[in-house]
């Protein structure tokens, strides 16, 4: 983790195949730009995301991680993302307890919302970058 | 098999591969038997579907909306072979145009696009876009169908939907997908999730002209393209298009000899277009310094370019873009060659040239000036240090007259003369100056001398004006500036008084036999000597190449001292050495030099990649219109003379070196450009830009519509619907008042896939006050539609809630007669919309009028009985549905009955059965439906269709339909 | 609260009566010269002790994967133990049918690691002892529910040290019916009253890494955790604790690594796994040879996470474990 | 392991923004990588030939293609692997076009990002195993619950397609509520006629078994082979059904709930249904004064019926029309909120009834007071905002639809969710209006919300054709990306079972472990992330794959 602090943030995103990953594809084909630090792991449904993955990502040096899926109610698997919402909400609480709230985010991004996707990830990236630099100065 | 118990047992698909390569389409033999044995489904009296395998049945589904998609998918899952015809470029119908769907506000794209993908991947479904039935004939139980496959001009197999074609396309049209709220190009993919996700070209008719300009241009500039851009006011786009094939637009926009104009087909009607001047206009409206350097992948290879003239720099430019490390060697202190040192300021301002060359340097080209080969660096060193060499040293050497006294002081070579001036060195001209020659250089010298203050400047030329090589307009300019021309005369002796030139003796000429060049040779007339007082003579008799410095390379020379090259590739006889421009052709034009440089660059690139060197592009002779083509065109094209570019008046311009021509005003430019015949057609103008950009060579302008003949067992119609066009409702001012739009247009504006990416904008500003008018074109006798459209109430409620959600503090009014929220969860949705602060007004507005800050809606509130006046920014008309235009034609060819409104007739107990046995209908075609109802009707149609095709011939026993 | 007052020895009598049946067992505490410890009583109840001031393990641990039917068992355990039992029932790790779980008020416990010779087991004295000495385990100090109000029935102690038995389920009523005397209103004020809520647990990665740097990955904490019920933990595989080739493979990929590899990972993931079921008994800390303050982290975190869903592990049998259910209309603000 | 990596230039698209050469070189040296090539267009014929060749020559056992996004080119590359005798599920595609080339400008940075993404693909592909599209035997038979129009039309279709059909009706007679209706609009037929037609169609068929006065006593098993137990008058009957269509219709709203209407206290106050039955026998003065109340039991939050019942406006119109047809000079007044004559032709029908002389008053009716002289209706005219009091000889309550009585029972039996109004909840309100979360179980007709005859028929047949599509082959294909259990690791805590949306996980009491019913699994992976010991894992995206992807992406450079 240490040797990375001077680098730009690395963010791992877990994106559901049916909505968010589609949105990211669209962002690409619309040539929208977003930081290279954002890298996606494709999962069939956001409910596939085991909180362990997120914890692992952070401990292995990612500066942030996000889980993103279809809007509640839109889930291709009918109810999956309701469970995601609970699990990730809990995990966020846990991260909060360890004073690293900003390292985990949950997004709902539908297949059509390429721009929303870009806004969300860029926002998260900038936020973390800022904190990081602030940290360095301090 | 029969014996097998039914306990869930698992086999691998491969085990079945005998019958099917894991396709879902074929019912394996034994499984069929199984079904037969089970439940005795097979014997005829019991409907007997069991022993008729659907896999050999074919069904035609017309329409790729959600209705058609559902029907097709259901049929395919039953094993039927389905052909789906979609009249447009992509399936998805109206639903994919929706931003959200009520009442759950689900994203329409998310829910529908997986289904669309299913259609694309389903092996039982053959999807034909741009296709529609032309003729249908019932043969026995089945149908003989002629399908019109419209050509999309893009090879759907090759296209990899990278989208690099569209940006280049100069034709901007309204996007149907966005209901005209946004633009698209003539070559386009309608929307990112389109299925098939392939480009197609919107080509309506053939180009009226032959685009001779493009063929005539040595570098095949996309003239049609940039004229189209200019005529529609997209000046920067015009420049970029020019730039794509020409590194020196500002030069060619000024001093090109414009072969294009000579052949311009419009010229056959009235005047040719001012192609060159319009190019300059494009340049004038673009800041070259702002050009960005493109993404370049560097290669290891190094290339040397000798000579920083147009040829050399063009070559360097293209090689740099290809990623080569290019060094240019120039003997003179500044780059540009003849452009810099021969063409006077008043024709080509140095600043313009500097910008263009500046960009080439930005590309990473290293221009070393003041380096003379052989003096400062040997040619061998270069040969050793670089992987390839391009020689473009031009023809700098002036020719001599070869008459007595030529060496006396005051006689100067033209090129020399211009170079001195262009270097900004002081030079005193005489009072009486004679310029010898009839080429552009001679003219430049004369006009320059005039500007330097010589009182009396004469041009001495051996032949008549007709033979003068100089450009006509240049000669005119010269005469305007009060310079005389002594035609048919040539100097024979110069006299000097104490070293200084004093007079020149000339001799009259007459034209004799034609010589090699085809021009009549001037023959001296006896005793016609006469003399002129001169204190300065400038000789401009032509130039020759200077090639001594490359002797070391062993390059073959032509007898006139130029380098012998293959003009198509720039190859010399020595490997790795290329040449082009004046150095190989002798004195010629700028654009030819650029072409030579580009061709060489192309060859060098291939050579260094180890590929076989071929011609960069094949030349095509400019075509002229035939006699009757001209007459036809003339008939439909109003006469319009060329609009000329204004110039500075003579008195003023001869006093300085400022540019003579002033340049077009945008209005004039657009007017002039719109004279281009190609621009007169709708859609694709076949400028070929997309072909240049498509790397997979998917574009094929030669495609033609085809007719496919097929046989089907049954047909399902799902042509869908159109929306009522409220233009006729004058009181609402649709089409005349800004800010009045239809529901579906508003939908596109809201949509994240729409023109503004989901921001609700009215010419750039966010509207705050909205008025939604329901039942426009529904429940309305005037517009001939008594029926209720069923969806408008809800989509209005949806729009209202979207607005509430996106625009804080928005004011929303809705006018209604009855709110018909009858579907599942609709009532609740309507209520919550109301509660979230949308004002529902019972009563339909009488009129909408313009006010200073918005639109005023006048409406009587039937509940309170009072007359309201509401001022808003945006008025959305919830237009009702209408049968899709095509429905009429479809029904005609299939002889299907429709009701008074044009919806297809069905009865409520057999909701998909038409009057023609075997043809079924689903979705809005048989009356307004919302999405779930359409989906259900799609399934219903599929079921009827399945019955029809699997039990044909057994209807009686089946006891199905009466 | 309706309850039956227990005169001295009453309960022993009842249980002895109960144990007469071959098929009956009691899991409770036994007091001998070496102190107090868990014991399963068969036939008769001797040296029985209501209270166990010493904490070694959580008794529910012994009940894991108890599926047999036919053996009637009465549990008389601390609230934290009964709560763990309830969670295990929810996780179908225990067949509840023949078990009556009775929670007994807990006055706090002392670690068996502590050096102590004599410790009272009578309510009044024990209460005093705990108040005088500062030997009470931290886990007990911050205990969320020391009262016998969980399980099928509970035994409460009033201010005068008298015992009261009350029931919370049908089974509990069955148990209560074995005790003679009638139900009467028990005093409002009991010896131990409801605990006030503790402030939200807050820490940071640096402290966490520092505290756990001592970890040797013996995984005793996991093994002694009553609600860590998996028969094959993910951390047994090479996925999370690579050794040998797997370790090299990992180093090759992720560069240098400290060892034992993945301590933080192990503890954080386990923390999440038990977040909804942890009863905060502190058995993990008792089991840790390195004296890592596990309770602080596990109890703290789990209570925060349970709080989100207004859930309390082991409070009753019917509450679904939050991760296994959802409401369509909740957590509107989790999305960023 | 022999992995082949193929990096596509996609012409300039990728080549100009990512240093493909550098990448292919880099991976050449990588462990377990046998081939690493970059190529202008991997999707082109020569490109595919190249891949195929190296699979055959180098004996690759994994293929990684870094190119455009996986959703493009559909099954192109899968088929390529098949053709080269390599299991298509050993293919890994990495999107470097949409996710690197087109979203970043800097060549260096893009290249590094692409490297990581490919690395991630490589790591996760290392855990790939050959998967097979399984097929499961399914029974070509359907259980249809409810003998109303939906059920009957479903039965008609399925039996005609040769499927074994078990039609179960709890009443003694088929036809549901429609049977009672007279002169149904727009069909202009009596309900009986419609039903008889449908029943007749079934009559001849040997592959239809109809059970009237029958209920379902037990329902077990999974898609393709559900075990059904019926309680028939003749006693218990067992059978296997491939799928189920639940079409149990609705229950008419009972106006007793609204005391102010005094329904049941006076026989001059009747419901539309009663009107249908008694129309001819009613004792009325000539030129009677008749009131029709819309929205009785609909759009009424107080009594917990916030929804619109969709059909009652038309029913009201029918009553009005019937009366007017009978005696022109009768006084008929309809009290409505909004007239929702939504079906095709409904609007015209509305206008016609108005022309026939039926009066429509937009009003909130407060109460009906029976007096010997007549029924006094008090209310407020919401158009003119004034209160009125009018006397009538007959009041017809246009009652709405309530959820079927057996809704809860059926819901538990068939694992169907109920919506907030206690109707059945569809899988997706728009695109899957008759599916449920459980494969092979459909809900048709008004049991999922009020519907008219046409819509119910549509539902019945549409769900039937969908079910037929599932079953017609006698076997069903199962997506290989489904969960599977490692019984050695399973602790039998049944958390996955509880969470599973598709109800595809079953607990084995004896072994105390769960197993997955493959035909039912949707492949979402929820179970995988729920299981603390990952004893259940989702094929094609097992923990190790994702873990290693993470390692690759977070790899310290």
Layout of strands and helices, then pairs:
The complex is a heterotetramer of chains A (138), B (962), C (336) and D (557).
Chain A: E1 11-16, H1 20-29, E2 38-43, H2 51-59, E3 64-69, H3 80-97, E4 104-108, H4 114-137
Parallel strand pairs in A: 1-2, 1-3, 3-4
Chain B: E1 10-12, H1 13-16, H2 29-37, E2 58-62, H3 66-77, E3 81-86, E4 100-101, E5 106-107, H4 108-121, E6 125-129, E7 131-139, E8 142-149, H5 165-168, E9 172-174, E10 183-185, E11 187-188, E12 200-201, H6 212-216, H7 223-231, H8 235-245, H9 249-255, H10 259-263, H11 275-284, E13 302-306, H12 310-321, E14 325-329, H13 338-341, H14 350-362, E15 366-368, H15 379-385, E16 388-391, E17 397-398, E18 411-413, H16 414-422, E19 432-436, H17 440-451, E20 456-460, H18 472-480, E21 484-486, E22 489-497, E23 500-514, E24 520-524, E25 530-533, E26 536-539, E27 543-544, E28 577-579, H19 582-585, H20 590-609, H21 627-636, H22 650-653, H23 666-673, H24 689-693, E29 706-712, E30 714-717, E31 721-723, E32 740-742, H25 743-750, E33 769-776, H26 792-806, E34 811-816, H27 826-835, E35 838-842, E36 847-851, E37 854-860, E38 867-872, E39 874-879, E40 881-883, H28 885-894, E41 919-921, H29 931-950, H30 955-958
Parallel strand pairs in B: 2-3, 2-30, 3-6, 13-14, 13-16, 14-15, 16-28, 18-26, 19-20, 19-26, 20-21, 30-41, 32-39, 33-34, 33-39, 34-35
Antiparallel strand pairs in B: 4-5, 7-8, 8-29, 9-10, 11-12, 17-27, 22-23, 23-24, 23-25, 31-40, 36-37, 37-38
Helix pairs in contact in B: 3-4, 3-29, 7-8, 7-11, 7-23, 8-11, 9-11, 12-20, 16-17, 25-26, 26-27
Chain C: E1 2-6, H1 10-19, E2 24-32, E3 35-41, E4 48-49, E5 54-55, E6 72-77, H2 79-90, E7 99-104, E8 110-111, H3 123-132, H4 138-141, E9 153-157, E10 163-167, H5 170-178, E11 184-185, H6 205-212, H7 220-224, H8 244-254, H9 263-273, H10 283-287, H11 294-308
Secondary-structure class of chain A: alpha/beta
Number of strands of chain A: 4
Order of helices and strands of chain A: EHEHEHEH
CATH class of the largest domain in chain B: Alpha Beta
Radius of gyration of chain A: 15 Å
CATH class of chain A: Alpha Beta
How far apart lie the N and C ends of chain B?
38 Å
Largest interface: B-D, 113 and 111 residues
């Amino acid at each position: 983790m240490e040797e990375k602090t001077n680098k730009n943030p690395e963010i791992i995103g877990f994106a559901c195949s049916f909505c968010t990953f589609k949105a990211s594809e669209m962002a690409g084909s619309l040539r929208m730009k977003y930081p290279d630090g954002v890298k996606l792991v494709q999962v069939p449904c956001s409910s596939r995301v085991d909180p362990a993955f997120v914890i692992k990502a952070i401990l292995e040096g990612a500066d942030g991680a996000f889980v993103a899926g279809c809007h509640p109610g839109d889930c291709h698997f009918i109810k999956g993302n309701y469970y995601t919402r609970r699990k990730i909400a809990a995990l966020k609480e846990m991260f909060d307890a360890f004073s690293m709230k900003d390292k985990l985010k949950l997004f709902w991004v539908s297949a059509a919302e390429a721009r929303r996707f870009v806004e969300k990830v860029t926002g998260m990236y900038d936020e973390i970058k800022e904190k990081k630099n602030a940290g360095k100065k301090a | 098999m029969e014996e097998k118990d039914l306990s869930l047992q698992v086999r691998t698909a491969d085990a079945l591969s005998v019958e099917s390569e894991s396709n879902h389409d074929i019912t394996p033999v034994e499984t069929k038997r199984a079904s037969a044995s089970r439940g005795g489904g097979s014997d005829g009296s019991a409907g007997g579907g069991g022993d008729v395998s659907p896999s050999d049945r074919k069904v035609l589904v017309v329409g790729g909306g959600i209705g058609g998609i559902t029907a097709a998918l259901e049929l395919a899952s039953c094993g039927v072979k389905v052909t789906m015809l979609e009249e447009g470029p992509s399936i998805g119908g109206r639903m994919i145009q929706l931003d959200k769907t009520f009442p759950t506000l689900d994203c329409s794209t998310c829910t529908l696009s997986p289904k669309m993908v299913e259609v694309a991947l389903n092996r039982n479904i053959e999807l034909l876009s741009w296709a529609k039935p032309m003729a249908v004939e019932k043969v026995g139980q089945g149908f003989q169908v002629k399908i019109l496959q419209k050509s999309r001009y893009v090879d759907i197999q090759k296209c990899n939907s990278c989208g690099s074609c569209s940006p280049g396309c100069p034709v901007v049209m309204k996007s149907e997908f966005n209901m005209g709220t946004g633009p698209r190009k003539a070559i386009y993919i309608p929307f990112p999730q389109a299925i098939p996700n392939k480009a197609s070209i919107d080509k309506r008719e053939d180009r009226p002209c032959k685009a001779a300009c493009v063929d005539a241009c040595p570098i095949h500039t996309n003239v049609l393209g940039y004229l189209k851009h200019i005529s529609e006011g997209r000046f920067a786009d015009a420049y970029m298009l020019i730039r794509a094939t020409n590194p020196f637009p500002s030069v060619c926009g000024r001093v090109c000899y414009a072969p294009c104009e000579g052949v311009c087909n419009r010229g056959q009607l009235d005047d040719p277009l001012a192609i060159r001047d319009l190019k300059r206009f494009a340049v004038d409206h673009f800041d070259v310094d702002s050009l960005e350097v493109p993404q370049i992948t560097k290669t290891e290879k190094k290339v040397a370019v000798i000579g920083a003239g147009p040829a050399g720099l063009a070559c360097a430019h293209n090689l740099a873009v290809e990623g080569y490390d290019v060094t240019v060697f120039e003997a003179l202190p500044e780059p540009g060659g003849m452009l810099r040192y021969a063409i006077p300021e008043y024709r080509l301002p140095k600043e313009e040239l500097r910008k263009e060359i500046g960009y080439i340097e930005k590309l990473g080209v290293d221009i070393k000036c003041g380096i003379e080969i052989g003096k400062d660096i040997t040619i061998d060193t270069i040969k050793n240090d670089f992987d390839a060499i391009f020689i473009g040293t031009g023809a700098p050497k002036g020719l001599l007259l070869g008459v007595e006294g030529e060496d006396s002081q005051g006689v100067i070579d033209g090129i020399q003369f211009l170079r001195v001036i262009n270097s900004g060195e002081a030079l005193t001209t005489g009072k009486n100056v004679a310029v010898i020659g009839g080429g552009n250089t001679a003219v430049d010298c004369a006009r320059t001398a005039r500007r330097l203050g010589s009182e009396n400047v004469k041009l001495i030329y051996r032949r008549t004006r007709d033979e003068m090589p100089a450009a006509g307009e240049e000669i005119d300019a010269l005469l305007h500036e009060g310079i005389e021309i002594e035609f048919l005369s040539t100097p024979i002796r110069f006299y000097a008084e104490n070293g200084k030139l004093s007079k020149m003796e000339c001799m009259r000429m007459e034209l004799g036999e034609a010589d090699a060049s085809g021009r009549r040779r001037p023959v001296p007339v006896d005793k016609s000597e006469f003399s002129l007082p001169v204190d300065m003579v400038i000789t401009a008799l032509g130039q020759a190449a200077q090639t001594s410095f490359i002797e070391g390379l062993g390059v073959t020379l032509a007898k006139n001292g130029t380098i012998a090259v293959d003009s198509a590739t720039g190859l010399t006889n020595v490997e790795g050495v290329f040449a082009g421009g004046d150095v190989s052709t002798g004195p010629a034009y700028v654009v030819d030099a650029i072409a030579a440089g580009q061709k060489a660059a192309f060859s060098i690139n291939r050579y260094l990649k180890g590929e076989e060197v071929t011609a960069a592009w094949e030349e095509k002779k400019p075509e002229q219109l035939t006699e009757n083509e001209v007459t036809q065109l003339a008939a439909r094209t109003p006469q319009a003379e060329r609009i000329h570019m204004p110039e500075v008046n003579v008195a003023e311009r001869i006093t300085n070196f400022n540019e003579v021509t002033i340049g077009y005003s945008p209005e004039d430019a657009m007017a002039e450009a719109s004279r281009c015949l190609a621009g007169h057609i709708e859609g694709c103008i076949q400028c070929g830009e997309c072909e240049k950009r498509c790397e997979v060579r998917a574009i094929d302008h030669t495609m033609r519509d085809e007719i496919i003949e097929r046989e089907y067992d049954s047909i399902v119609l799902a042509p869908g619907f159109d929306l009522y066009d409220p233009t006729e409702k004058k009181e609402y001012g649709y089409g005349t008042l800004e800010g009045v739009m239809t529901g579906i247009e508003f939908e596109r504006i809201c949509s994240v896939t729409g023109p503004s990416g989901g921001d609700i904008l009215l010419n750039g500003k966010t509207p705050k006050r909205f008025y939604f008018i329901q039942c426009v074109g529904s429940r309305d006798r005037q517009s001939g539609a008594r029926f209720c459209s069923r969806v408008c109430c809800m989509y209005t409620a949806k729009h209202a809630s979207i607005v509430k959600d996106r625009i804080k503090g928005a004011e929303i009014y809705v006018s209604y007669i009855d709110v018909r929220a009858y579907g599942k969860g609709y009532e609740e949705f309507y209520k919550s919309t109301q509660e979230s602060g949308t004002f529902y007004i019972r009563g339909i507005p009488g009129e909408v009028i313009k006010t200073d800050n918005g639109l005023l809606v006048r409406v009587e509130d039937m509940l309170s009985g009072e007359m309201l006046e509401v001022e808003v920014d945006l008025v959305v008309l919830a237009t009702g549905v209408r049968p899709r235009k095509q429905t009429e034609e479809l029904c005609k060819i299939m002889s299907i009955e429709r009701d008074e409104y044009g919806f297809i007739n069905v009865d409520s107990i057999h909701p998909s059965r038409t009057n023609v046995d075997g043809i079924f209908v689903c979705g809005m075609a048989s009356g307004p439906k919302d999405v779930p109802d359409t989906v259900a009707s799609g399934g219903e149609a599929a079921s009827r269709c399945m019955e029809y095709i699997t039990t044909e011939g057994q209807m009686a026993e089946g006891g199905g339909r009466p | 609260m309706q309850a039956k007052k227990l005169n001295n020895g009453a309960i022993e009598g009842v249980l002895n009566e109960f144990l007469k049946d071959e098929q009956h067992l009691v899991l409770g505490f036994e007091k001998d010269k070496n102190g107090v410890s868990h014991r399963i009583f068969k036939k008769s109840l001797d040296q029985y002790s209501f209270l166990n001031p010493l904490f070694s393990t959580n008794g529910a641990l012994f009940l894991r994967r108890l599926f047999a039917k036919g053996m009637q068992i009465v549990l008389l355990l601390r609230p934290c133990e009964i709560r763990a039992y309830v969670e295990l029932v929810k996780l179908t790790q225990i067949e509840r049918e023949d078990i009556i779980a009775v929670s007994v008020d807990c006055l706090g416990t002392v670690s068996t690691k502590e050096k102590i010779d004599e410790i009272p087991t009578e309510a009044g004295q024990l209460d005093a002892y705990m108040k005088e000495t500062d030997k009470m385990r931290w886990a007990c100090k911050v205990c969320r529910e020391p009262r016998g109000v969980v399980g099928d029935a509970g035994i409460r102690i009033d201010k005068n040290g008298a015992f009261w038995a009350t029931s919370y389920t049908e089974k509990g009523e069955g148990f209560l019916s074995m005790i003679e005397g009638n139900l009467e209103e028990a005093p409002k004020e009991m010896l131990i009253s409801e605990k006030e809520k503790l402030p939200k647990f807050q820490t940071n990665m640096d402290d966490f890494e520092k505290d756990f740097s001592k970890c040797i990955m013996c995984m005793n904490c996991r093994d002694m955790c009553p609600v860590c019920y998996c028969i094959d933990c993910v951390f047994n595989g090479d996925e999370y604790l690579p050794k040998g080739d797997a370790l090299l493979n990992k180093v090759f990929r992720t560069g240098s690594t400290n060892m034992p590899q993945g301590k933080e990972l192990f503890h954080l993931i386990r923390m999440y796994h038990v977040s909804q079921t942890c009863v905060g008994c502190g058995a993990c800390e008792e089991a840790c040879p390195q004296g890592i303050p596990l309770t602080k982290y596990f109890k703290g975190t789990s209570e925060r996470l349970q709080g989100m869903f207004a859930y309390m592990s082991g409070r009753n049998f019917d509450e679904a474990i939050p991760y296994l259910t959802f409401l369509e209309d909740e957590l509107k603000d989790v999305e960023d | 392991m022999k992995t082949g990596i193929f990096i596509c230039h996609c012409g300039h698209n990728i080549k100009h923004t990512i240093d493909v050469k550098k990448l292919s070189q880099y991976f050449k040296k990588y462990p377990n990588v046998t081939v690493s090539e970059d190529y202008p267009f991997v999707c082109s014929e020569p490109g595919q030939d190249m891949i195929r060749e190296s699979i055959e020559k180098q004996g690759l056992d994994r293929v990684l293609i870094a190119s455009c996004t996986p959703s493009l080119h559909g099954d192109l590359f899968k088929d390529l692997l098949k053709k080269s005798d390599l299991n298509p599920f050993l293919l890994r595609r990495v999107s470097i076009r949409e996710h690197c080339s087109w979203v970043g400008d800097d060549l260096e940075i893009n290249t590094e990002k692409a490297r990581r993404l490919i690395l991630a693909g490589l790591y996760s592909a290392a855990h790939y195993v050959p998967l097979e599209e399984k097929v499961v035997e399914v029974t070509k038979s359907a259980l249809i619950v409810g003998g109303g129009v939906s059920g009957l039309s479903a039965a008609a279709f399925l039996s005609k397609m040769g499927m074994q059909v078990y039609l179960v009706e709890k009443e003694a007679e088929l036809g549901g509520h429609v049977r009672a209706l007279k002169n149904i609009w727009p069909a202009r037929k009596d309900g009986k006629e419609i039903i008889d037609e449908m029943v007749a169609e079934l009559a001849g068929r040997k592959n239809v078994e109809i059970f009237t006065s029958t209920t379902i006593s037990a329902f077990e098993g999974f898609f393709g082979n559900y075990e059904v137990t019926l309680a028939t008058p003749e006693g218990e009957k067992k059978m296997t059904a491939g799928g189920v269509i639940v079409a149990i219709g609705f229950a008419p709203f009972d106006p007793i709930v609204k005391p102010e209407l005094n329904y049941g206290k006076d026989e001059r106050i009747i419901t539309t249904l009663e009107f249908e039955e008694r129309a001819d026998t009613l004792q009325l003065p000539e030129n009677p004064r008749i009131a029709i109340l819309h929205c009785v039991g609909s759009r009424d939050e107080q009594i917990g019926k916030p929804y619109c019942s969709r059909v009652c406006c038309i029913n009201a119109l029918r009553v009005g029309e019937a009366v007017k047809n009978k005696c022109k000079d009768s006084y008929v007044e309809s009290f409505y909120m909004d007239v929702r004559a939504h079906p095709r032709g409904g609007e015209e029908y509305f206008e016609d009834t108005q022309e026939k002389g039926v009066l429509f008053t937009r009003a909130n009716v407060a109460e009906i007071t029976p007096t010997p002289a007549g029924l006094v209706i008090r209310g407020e005219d919401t158009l003119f905002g004034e209160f009125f009091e009018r006397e009538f000889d007959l009041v017809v309550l246009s009652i709405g639809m309530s959820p079927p009585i057996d809704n809860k029972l059926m819901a538990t039996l068939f694992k169907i969710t109920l919506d907030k109004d206690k109707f059945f909840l569809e899988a997706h309100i728009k695109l899957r209006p008759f599916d449920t979360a459980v494969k092979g179980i459909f809900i048709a007709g008004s049991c999922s919300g009020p519907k008219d005859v046409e819509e119910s028929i549509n539902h019945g047949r549409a769900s039937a054709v969908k079910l037929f599509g599932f079953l017609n082959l006698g076997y069903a294909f199962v997506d290989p990306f489904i969960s599977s259990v490692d019984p050695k690791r399973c602790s039998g805590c049944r958390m996955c079972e509880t969470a599973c949306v598709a109800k595809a996980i079953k607990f084995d009491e004896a072994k105390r472990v769960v197993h997955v019913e493959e035909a039912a699994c949707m492949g979402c992976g929820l179970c995988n992330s729920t299981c603390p010991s990952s004893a259940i894992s989702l094929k094609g995206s097992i923990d190790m794959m994702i873990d290693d992807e993470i390692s690759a992406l977070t790899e310290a450079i």
